[in-house]
Amino acid sequence: MDSEAWNEEQEEQRLKGMRREWEAASAGEHDYYAVLNVSRRATTEDIREAYRRLSRLFHPDRHHGAEKQEWARRQFHIIQRAHEILIDPAVRAAYDQLGEQGINLGKAVGYKLHSVKDLQDKFEREARMRRIEDVDEWVQSQSEITLSVNGSGIISPYSAQSPQQSSGKSAHGSGGLILQQLFMSHSFTASLSDKVSGTIEGRMLSRNSNAKAGNNGVVKVMIKRTLGPQTWMSFTTPVLPPHVVAVEAVHCPSLGTFYQAKVEQHALDLHTPPAITVQAGRPLSPYTTAFISVATGNQYTLGSMWKNSSTRALRRQAGKQPTLVPRKPSSVTIGLTGARSTGEELGANVTATSNQAYIQAWYKRKIDMYFSISGGLIVVGHNPQHAAPLSLGDISVNIDMAGEIDRHTKLGWKVDLGLASGVTVTIYLRRFRNSVKLPLLLTPMLELELAIYASAIPMAAALALHYFVLKPRRRRLIERQMEILKDEQRYQLSQQQRQAQEAVRLMADSVARARKQALAANGLVIEKALYGDLPFGIAAQDTNILRAAITKFGASRTALSTTDEPRACDVTVALHALVVGDQLVIAGNGSKQFLPGFYDPTFGAPKSLFIRYRFKGKLHEAIVKDDQALAIPMREHCIDQQIKPVSIGQLLKYRRQPLSMENILDSVGYTQAELPVRLAKRVISFHKLPFIVGTNPHIARVYNQYYEAFDRLHAFAPISDLEAEWDFTRALERQTQVLLDVIPTIAQGFLECQLYMPREERTAFINDLIRSRIGLRVIGEQHVALSYQFREEQKKAKQSLDAAGSGAAAVAERGRVGLGGAGEDVWVGAIHTRLLPARMMEQCGQMVQSMCEMHYGTAPGYYVDGDVDETISYIPSHFEYITCELLKNAFRATVDFSNSTNRSSHPPIQITITKGDGYVGVRIRDQGGGISKENMRNVFEYSWSSMQNSDSADEHGANGGGSLMAGMSLQTNLALQHGIGGPIAGLGFGLPMARLYAGYFGGSLDIVSMEGYGCDVFLKLRSIEGSVEDKQI
């Protein structure tokens, strides 16, 4: 391993991991969650089920022969101990917090407590107390000592003849060194309760006799209370002057976002205004945070209030005595800070006060975990007389180098260079939260040669020492410690390997039978599994790259079989034994070496698990890290499956017969196989969005909803009976309800992100999402409706049997179930085969009219004419959504135009139904002023709306729409999106979505506008039954 490829931080962490593993192995410790293959959040029932499953494999009574029974006893002993520890809440809580050391403690105190939460709280306190005892002296206290020394008298020629320094030499220094000031601070923090902590802080500043001010000090007491996981407040009061009381509140609603307010008031001088400081910050990107700080100071007035404050500049100019209240000027600061994963940090801010302004910028680069270099620039401008422009006060540059002596101690060298402040070198030492600083003034004026000596030479020396002495020394020490641990681990490795081989032999017969059954059923079969330091240089879960990498590293199998210390072990049988119901789930958050049949072949090396498996006749491959959870068939592999379109004719094939159990199982079989594939493809489509778009909270919410729907439906085993079908149907129905608000949520998200994604890409993504969503809902709601219809038929058949009283009557009655009337025979799942458009328009018109009256206080009338008795085969929820959206626009435009033209009354809206060859036409005519030519180009664009105040639309939908829409007998709460005036009003998604819904089954939607008069909207809907039965969904 060459020095360039050697990562010290990774090797340090690896050494720590090796030490923990060696200590655990030496003590005979196990990860009992991994032994049972359950997660740390597993319920008691999960633990019992895992124990029963492993008992069937390893109980000694299930094996024959003295040797195999002895193997089984060793394996079963570990499994039984894992069950005993995890099944007992008290012992489990102790094990979670303290490991095996806490097991006996858990048994001793467990039955004295009342609940699992009590146990967890107790052992959390025990663990916390142990950590506090280890670092109590350092963690609970914080201190700083700064000793400022003026050495310019012996270093700088500009100060050699200074009378002031000469006079001070005998009193405070020798040889030209002058002790200027000593600053000390110390604070101690203690927890008073779970949410309250107290801090006592003392500060002292001592200056020599030549300084402008003498000595002073302060002692403060602060009480801090946590109000929630993101909010805290504090109250600070002094013990010694100045008596400034402070109240501070901080709220952090999300990562990188913060709001802070602080109020300071002099308790002995209430005639002085309080100093108020408000700060706020939020992320601009994943690496950058912007912040602003506004401080009022304590020199302001509110009318006549505080006009005579002792901190006012007028009082000071009038020759009054100096006040004990520190004067604070008002200020504004705006800045940016940023950090990257490469170890770079940077920032800049601009601050302006009443008589001063400065610009500050800084940059820090972490060379490695032990060494860092930083630099800064400060430009100061003065305006003492409040005149313009500002005069240059100072330009200063600082360079800081810091290196770690050990994990807790840091030694640094800082050089400050300023035109007015000269050259100062600061040597500092930090250990935990304690620091000692020694600033040494080399010259009061900027000397370039001295600045180079003070910065460049120490930096070069520090880098040389770091790279050529300390780093090679640390590398040799780490490698030597690793070799020692490996030598000591060899015996443990042989023991683990022997036990794993015994477990595999015990599982072999059972796995062979399960494999044979899985092959016959075309189920999940583990073809090959390797665990260890795999030689595949690939990314996890990338099957294409994986296949290429395995070809490239084909010699790895030879290496595995010929090396003295194999880099990986074969766990094919052990992994297949964990397959349950064509699914393999391995819990994460722990090493897989404790699974039955596994062992650690490469102590100290990072390990992975490689799997090649066959599912549904297709071969898949995957690789996961040692602590990563695994579930196969993997979700990503569902993408390899192609969507299987279903025709309208197939959805209608049950229209002329009573539904049977075979019909329902056939429907659920297709639904269960198809929906997860379509949902998975939607999830992947979100991954392809730009990062800033995908992280938008509204879009991320929709992504999570699709992911959860996929996760829940994909988890069902293949369905073969009505009980399992009913469970799946109810889960499908719940997920359908969860996805109801997808469109308004995604609309709001893309409205906020329209600057970050081209319009064409946004339109394509939304179109694909909506078309896919229509297909998902049609397939899902069709099966849900068929399932309910089947159970209703079964219920009526049973009632008919009970009432008939004879076999012949029962058969006759059973034949009429589902066929006995127009109301019963018109539904085929979610499709209505005799839908009356005129009746639907009446219902939607009444609802839109009521909501228009609620919002505007008035509403136009409407009437339906034409072929009012014409019927169509269609999905009512789709029809309702389209027509409600069109009527909403017509009603709103009519009222707005009447108001703008002072029209005395609203002309009615005309709805005309026409009959065509296999379709029904609907014309909606209004006199709402029409649409301008400029707007006509945009009416079918997403996120465009003529509504100026979308907030009012949201409020109207929330307050007025719910109860009215509940009165509609709509299967999906007014056409899948809460319809008129609901969440999407004003978001610009109504007409584009209506056009998509109309065109999905071969229809169309067109608008003809006469500007200044009104609009005619032409809707053409094809009958599902007959004309579009070949349409693929």
TrEMBL record:
It holds the Pfam family HATPase_c. Its main location: membrane. It is found in: Membrane; Mitochondrion. The keyword Kinase does not apply. Residues 885-1025 form the Histidine kinase domain. Gene3D superfamilies: Alpha-ketoacid/pyruvate dehydrogenase kinase, N-terminal domain (1.20.140.20), DnaJ domain (1.10.287.110), Histidine kinase-like ATPase, C-terminal domain (3.30.565.10). Belongs to the PDK/BCKDK protein kinase family. This is Protein-serine/threonine kinase. It comes from Coemansia aciculifera.
